## 1
Amino acid sequence: MHERYLEDLRIGARFEGGPYEVTESAIIEFAREFDPQPIHLDPKAAKESIFEGLIASGWHTAVITMRLLVKSGLNLAGGTIGLGADELRWPKPVRPGDKLRAEVEIIGLRPSRSKPDRGVVRIRYTTRNQNDETVMTMTATVLVLRRSAIQQPSRKD
Amino acid sequence: MHERYLEDLRIGARFEGGPYEVTESAIIEFAREFDPQPIHLDPKAAKESIFEGLIASGWHTAVITMRLLVKSGLNLAGGTIGLGADELRWPKPVRPGDKLRAEVEIIGLRPSRSKPDRGVVRIRYTTRNQNDETVMTMTATVLVLRRSAIQQPSRKD
């Protein structure tokens, strides 16, 4: 798959990943390890909660989104190295059987101020379920390499 | 363990969780499922990267932090139901063998505008390694129940 450098990216470019089915057993397994709460672990207790049924941890949705991004066509050279994330929101819960798709859009691009071989990309994530309802949104800042750093190595002689 | 309602919380209150050791095998297992990139999967490839060795996915650090919070003394009534997160940053990488501790501090409290049985808490997270270096920070908005909603049920007669 074609690797993308800073110079290959344009504001407004979009990439998609998915679908990824979220099973009840995956919800429970993730929760047991990282978010051990009844609404994520116990279908009966979850039924009596304000969610009226088992829901995935929001962090489970976040890491599934990361997986979908890594496997999408974005494919940044050097990998997707996150510097930070903002405005992470979960407007609707994810339930067993949901099939998630993640869309990423490039919303900002700039060369690094201190390191000429890299740049910083701002990415808007939107994760939707099979009914096209948005279950997660986030804005992330990601490091990306510049092609010029590869094509024009400094001379050492 | 004592469950805390909105009325039990004070701005500036702090709670701690951990330590939690992050093993090389856990880093690789998490990455295989959710962040399949060489710097998280392959010690040899990671050695040649800008990180000079295997590092945990930032999302792995985030979900470990969630686990530490759920098991900390904060123990919110009704569970820790996240509405969103902001300012998620990873100032230093997490490496195999690191022992993480998470500290949470209450930085905001308000009753819900629309639902009298609940409130919204702003929490500042700081995750540190065994050398007291900060590896992650985040601000989260969490739903919390009000005790008054439990103690004064509306009369139905």
## 2
Amino acid sequence: MANPSLLILAGDGIGPEVMAEVKKLIRWFEAKRGIAFDVSDDLVGGAAYDKSGTPLTDETMARAQAADAVLLGAVGGPKYDVLDFSVKPERGLLRLRKEMDLYANLRPAQCFDALADFSSLKRDIVAGLDIMIVRELTSGVYFGEPRGIFTEGNERVGINTQRYTESEIARVARSAFELARKRNGKVCSMEKANVMESGVLWRQVVQEVHDKEYPDIQLSHMYADNGAMQLVRAPKQFDVIVTDNLFGDVLSDCAAMLTGSLGMLPSASLGAPMANGRPKALYEPVHGSAPDIAGQGKANPIACILSFAMALRYSFDLGVEAARVEQAVEKVLADGLRTADLMGPEGGVPVSTSGMGDAILAAL
Amino acid sequence: MANPSLLILAGDGIGPEVMAEVKKLIRWFEAKRGIAFDVSDDLVGGAAYDKSGTPLTDETMARAQAADAVLLGAVGGPKYDVLDFSVKPERGLLRLRKEMDLYANLRPAQCFDALADFSSLKRDIVAGLDIMIVRELTSGVYFGEPRGIFTEGNERVGINTQRYTESEIARVARSAFELARKRNGKVCSMEKANVMESGVLWRQVVQEVHDKEYPDIQLSHMYADNGAMQLVRAPKQFDVIVTDNLFGDVLSDCAAMLTGSLGMLPSASLGAPMANGRPKALYEPVHGSAPDIAGQGKANPIACILSFAMALRYSFDLGVEAARVEQAVEKVLADGLRTADLMGPEGGVPVSTSGMGDAILAAL
Ligand SMILES: CC(C)[C@H](C(=O)O)[C@@H](O)C(=O)O
Ligand SMILES: CC(C)[C@H](C(=O)O)[C@@H](O)C(=O)O
């Protein structure tokens, strides 16, 4: 049987650097554990635009569709700010999400014990924090039509459309309920049903799916503005949060920052099962391309490495191996190893991007 | 000359209780400072629905249009959750905002020194915090058409429309720049121009207004998801933030919670100048109707009292009197007086809603 295939799209900025550490890990798995992948590389974002004038070519799109899993680094950079909307680096990422139909974006916000003092929040508010945000990723205002900038009378008008169908809401709700079953059995759904009809439908459908299929899960609903407040006030009240594409974008970043260490946070974007039973899947760190530190060996590779661990768990049913990677990360942190972003007043052992990657391999 | 008119819409939940303290303050101003208002009361939200089956009658709407300023308590409560979208308490508030064309919602997020330990954030991150969020309040996805829940094929679809015209963006940008001139000269504009065309237009127009009319202000742009992160990470980097209706809803609540004391935060919603030169204006606390503690004398009246102080400043050009009220609030806090929501581990002198109101009067 052929090895499972991994398509690596390292992208822009620090993407290639952090992905280089993941590649070491992939080689380690083949050499030491006999778990081999067919790895190939391709371009996305600004890197793809520089070569072919588009942030994602049709060929790359086809390879992503065929891959067992896609690992993505990061996209974007100031160099591309002047580009037209339609060819901005982000469009490459959005095209992948949309065409692979990756509707469930899993964003764990976890506070690592060794790093709890790093948060801008008080230690007792965030220590031990472990919430999972499930963000709808293929619909809503990100993709709704009509959209664009039009002229009306003598002025410009900017339009986007928030649009959710019942089935789009139901499937991401199911993802959230399934995750909750493996966690603490609680889901909080967030929208603005007091202001938006799309939020009214969201709330109804989530409740219906719950009542019919997941009555064992404790479901609550919260307005998204209150959600932002509650995340800041007392984040540990949450287990799984499910929300739409745009609220998910803002709320998951808010939640990520609570942990104090963005360089640590992975994500998985999952779609429907393929013929081989594996879900369509793309894994990427939550952090961006950080152009200001790119190429300096300062980037923290952990978020990207933990994204690979999520791939092991969700695409390849290697939960035990995933946990081993996660434990190795915790060990190097407990040992005091720190990339620049993790270097706080209490000090630590400074390491470069590759130093951190090597240490994690050694800890495995 | 007639006294300036104040329409009081106390609304639901704790609205009437906190407004009672503002009324004491209004009487104090008349008796002690010769500053008199023609005060009248009316209903909004659930209270209006209970009486007339609508959260805001046409008569009340007309009185609000005619008033020199409107003071609002809070709307909503679980009793009304079952109501149809079109008659929910919130619609009363949204109608006031829309028909009075109150496009600039000013939400100061200020951390009171005596309460800094109340925040879930570390003291040094929030002590001295003083930012002003200017939220567009009459357009965007709150009001855009088409909207509703429709049937397509055999499923329901929820639709809302984000829509901004150039002039809508320009006028709220001007409000932000004007405020920045009186503060620290910095404006940060937030949108998702990397994903939404309405955000692209927002960014362009804000930049154009800046370049033509406010080149003295330091303007920056930030994606709204990053904005949420930066608010949590290092809120003191901001002076004035300007953003759209929906992002403003979420981000201003996030910012409010940073201060740790929602019961302290006022807001002003301002429109164009009326014939008498005063802006159309509605003032309301940021907190909600808190049905769980309504009627128990536990509510903190300070947010509502500080909203009245904003009315003195922005509607009646009584900035000196406004500052006196604000100082009185700071004094009672420094004296250790605490309503239930402000009672932390370090203790304090417990006071009721009216006890707090009386103490502020005494401090004046
Ligand atoms: C890069 C951008 C298009 C993207 C988004 O808005 O979804 C990012 O912020 C994210 O959260 O993955
Ligand atoms: C009550 C509700 C309609 C309102 C809003 O969403 O604008 C509230 O959250 C606010 O921020 O004033």
